[in-house]
Amino acid sequence: MVSMRYPMEVNLIGDSKATLHRLLPLLHRKPDRSWRETIEKSVKEWWGVLRTRAMNDATPLNPQRVFWELSPRLPEKCIIACDTGSGTNWYARDVKIR
Asked: pTM score > 0.85 for this model?
């Protein structure tokens, strides 16, 4: 059922690690790095915005702060699950997935 909801030019079905490994030789480095640099700058700025929001005082507490503080305390290769609602938004925005 690949491409059922969104049309794609090439459908790849398989183990992601093996598939990506086979695709790596087909990649060619582009000399113009401006697009990547723009994205990296925007991501850095966004994390700054999220940190500022997380540090806002709130009573009894700022839930974004909980998620912000959780990120560096999560062990490597942990699995996180979340339910629905506002917590899902904070999880999706404020937890840095490694």
From this structure: no
